[in-house]
Amino acid sequence: MLFLLMFGLVLGSDTDIPFGLDIPQAEWQVGPNPDLMCYDAAILNEQIHFHSINIDHYLKIRIFSERGKSAADSFVLSGRASKLEGRVIDRSGAETRFGKEDLIEQLAVKNSDRKTKVKVLVPPGLTADCIVELMWSEGAQNGLPSREHFRQYWVSSDFYCYKKSFFIHPTATRSDNPFLSPRFVWSGAIPPMRQVKDKIKGVDMIQFENILPDLDHPFAVSYYDSNAAYLLAYHTFPNYGNKEEEFWKNFCSSYIKDLFGTGISKSGEYRDWVKSVKEQLPAEPVMRLVFAAEQFRLRIQQEDRMPYEKKVALRSHNDKYLDQKEQTSRVFERGTGDMYEIGLLFYQFAKDLDLDFEVLFTGTTDDPFFPGQLNPYGLNISYPLFCYRKDQYVAVMPEFAEYNVGFFPAVFQGGTAIAIDPNNKFKYEIVSIPRQGANSHFRVREYAFDIKQDGQTAFQVQEYGGGNIEARFRYALIGLPPEEQREWIEDSWEARLASYWDILETQALQANALNESPKIVVKAQTHFDIESARLNLAPFPGQTFPISFPNHFPEPRSQPILLPSCLNQVDVAQIRAPKGVQLLSPQNWSEENEVGKVTFQAAEQQGVIAVRRDIVLKRDILKAEELPLLKTFLAWMDEAAQLDISLGFPKP
Amino acid sequence: MITLFLMTLSLQSEFSIPKGLPDWALRAFAGVDLNETPDADIWRLLDETVITCQRKGQWETRRRTVQIVLKQKGAEDAATYTISGDEKASKIKKLKGWHAHPQKGLDKLDKDNVITIGKSTNRTISFDNETLVYFEHVSKGSVIAFESIERITPFFNLSMVSLLDESPIRHLKIQMELGTNPGQITLAPMGLDTWAIKHELSDKQFDAWDLPGLEFERLTPDAYDFYPYLVLGFLDSEEKGDPLQSWDSLAKWYASVFQNKAFEQPYAGTPAADLKSLFQDFRQRIRYKQVYLDNERGWVPLSGAQIEQQAYGDCKDMVSCFAFRAKPLGLTVWPALANVGDESPHTHAEQRASPAFNHLIAAVEVADDQLPATLQIQGKNFLLVDATSAYTPFGYLPVYFRGREVMICLPEGAAWVSIPEKALEPNSVHWQLNGSLNADRTFEGTLEAECIGTVHQFRYAFHQGGQQALLETIRAVLDTPGYCDIAMQEAKVDGDGKLHFRLTVRWPVFLRRDAEGFRLPSCVVSPGIVTMNQDRVAPIAVPRQEKEIWDLQLKSAVALRFGADEAQYSDGICSYHWKAQSGTDLQIHFESQREGKIFEKQEIPDGLAYWQKYRSNFNAFSVDATFAMLQ
Lengths: 652, 631
Fold this sequence. Notes:
heterodimer; A: alpha+beta; C8orf32 fold; Jelly Rolls; 11 helices; B: alpha+beta; Immunoglobulin-like; 3 domains; about 15% helix
């Protein structure tokens, strides 16, 4: 009833900003509504008007609690904000006006290059029962805020919103730039949110209604939240069309073809190399791609993933000023390239080997690719994947050289990609990239403790891993000289260890070549107070876990649960203690569900106390309904994380 | 010659005197034996400040420091310098730095590594800023010399310097010059004898040597007056009526500032019926917010009418507005200054801290002393009212006035009063947890609480944002893990001002395995009390804990046995009482409380002995009595 009344009053809208009108009674009646998660304050009406050289904003907020004042307590506007006008109307009728003279210009950041300011507004006269209304303008260029080429406007915010509208005025879509023209796309609205679209006097209006507030869900990506509606403004190719199939077809056959298809100047040496590799290619098509990637790695090094001695010997070059064809040829000559160059050269190499392969581009887990948006910024063009996916499947990313062939960063897995066939006129297909499971990634820490009678304790730990973990260690350590490798390890462990441990020594083993698996070694010591002849020891100092422990899971949740990556984690500790010391708390338990497994064992064998903890995260994508299973797994993991070993010392 | 002498000394040490530093930095090494370095991450060889008072109110401050990094873990801290400033009232005239790396040689400060950031937040709009200076590749053995010159216009010509820092300081020097301005220098150190600081003091210069480093120690008092410090400043003896010459002159000046500002425009509203309803209405209408755009606004309030219009203000603005509203009722309101909060120094009639005050409240002349926060001075009754503490019941003062003194500013001078315990509102919380514990040790049931006073900020959260805000605060206070489900069923404040609320809870692994059996969550019983280093340098602050009672009734699927049926302890500062019933109908009662107490520098041995006794008792109790085992 209330809603109908509300919206009845604002229908028949035109495109003018509705500032300064009388406040209808229905707006004063707006108050708390737990079903709509409407607490403290509500946005009655928000409008954003896009023009070519300015963007106008309008906001009307109803405040109905003390805490609700925070919805309008202060506004931080861009340094280029202008034409501010506003008012606060208390329930009693008292009105306080404010304008641009109330803006306080503040320093945001100043360094040797530049000084950035913001303008802050503290509306005067706010009460716990009032309505705040304001409008302002900011400078724009071709429909976007100045100097930006891409801007996402999320519809929902911290407070319940009755109505939020976007107005795209005709001048916004006309561009003075022949290469990049502005485009606006928007999501739909899933109930209970509603969407209304209209064209009024040549102005496109997209309106969202009944917008529930944002909840901060852990392990979530807003894009997959059905409540998360948005409008996207960006600059794009003007002549690729505005239908999905047509746009991507043109994108692949023009932009991508130009980028990759330029070819390289092939020297005699290059031809010899291609010939010799071709002769050794295995029969199976999937293995041919793998072999090619391995051979490529042996010959060409990625600059950020080179061992230290080779890296310091690199000479700087001006090849980036050459045309692309020459530049890519020089990559082969030098034997080194940046990530982008590696991608281009490998493409050429694969073509020259007559391999059956596709080139894929995708977004990332946090910023997925949605083909329907027709947004080229949604793809990571600098990070191509090379893939064979006919009878069998493999994908390689030679630019991420720290990964073993066939492995690549988890952020590129699980989402939508565009797969392009360079052997078939750059035809494309929209595909999905699978995620790798727990048996692909593991992490091991082996601790050895030595405890003396007076409580003086030292430990040594060796840490190593496979899959993602191995790649991460390689990438961090390979380009550093030995003393900086030690420093990196020390910084990382210093932050993780309890303050009572003093690090004595750190070392990186097998960390200077991409075909080696790094091992991290740390030695530390402390002095414990053996109180009441008992010592409680945390057996795995500096421990880490496959996933973090969020402190809150807001409800309701409809979007899927996205965990970083499956993992198999093993911690073992061998504890040598003086004669007569006993393990007071043997443990031997195991808990498991579909999400993961936790096992904990502590036992004494012939004077040595052995502790072992296994944590397996079996799945990394869960449905929202599976949240209780995740919570149970987190509870077991938390229990294992805080479990101390209790040692009894003989009384002197 | 000196250089040769110094270099010979350094041959045997793992640290050496670098080349290329400016002379003043090299002189810091004179007499230093680099074979005998203190056990610290960083050693500050020189910390020199020279302040010249130039024109009226302008100070030019030159700082010079020389630091050597003794341990690799000190490298990060040694690489960064911070200068706090103000867009309007301070300016950095010069910044120079030299970094001598043990292997890589000398590097000068790169201008690209200097960045200034505005420090406004949503709560405080101001022109405060912070300049960060960063040196690259700092490591063990690095020596950094840093020089800065700032011009500052402080509002009052008085400041304080804390003498100790995290790093040990070999030589600290503070020198004051009058420049072109005639006047008088104040240089007053405090706490030097208690701390046995080697020093020399003249009328213009203070030198101290071998100051110990205050490395991280637990449970230290925050207020700087427990540590050695120095009050310094310039008093312009020519200026008549300088408010800082005495408490009386300050009080008289401030009382008149208020009289003038508060009533600048006449009161146009409807007067309240009485003081209590004025108080209640005032606090609903005016919200607390700090906007400091110039130095003067640190002291001079806006007029009462202006605050009415904008509906927000800081503490002095609120007193101004309160006085403005009280006048039509025939009530006289005076400003009362105080230094409050655990981290603030203690200002009283005999001790001038700096800044002297951080808070302002109202002292209302009333007819009788019925209300707890009424104090008598020379036969008159003054009710102390803190306009900023949103929900403190009328007639009480908030807890941050504990152990503090307040200076009421009257036209005839300063009237100091000590805040008695009875003026502070009482605080306690009683929790009741009822439900079932299944074989997996998951708890399902309800959690209720009755809260008196400000304990855990529950009342504040509830008034600010209702059930939603209260629920968020409860989660934070109990530190419930994310996998624990908590939902608010009901919350209300009763006629006596007590807050009651009820929650439903589902808590997986409520009793978790630990070394000695199964442990209750740490919000019910703390898992153990930390130790204190016997070589402790800093005073000991035993933190106050308001009375907290937990009553648990759990129907357990499995029979459990607690370590003890009953345990008690009381030593005059800390006390607790535990009672438990084992079996499948588990019942637990645990209450605990602590008075706050500070063991000052000279009392450290007593403090350590006290703590050791309390700690071993509590830790043994926690393990022996509160753990559950399968029966």
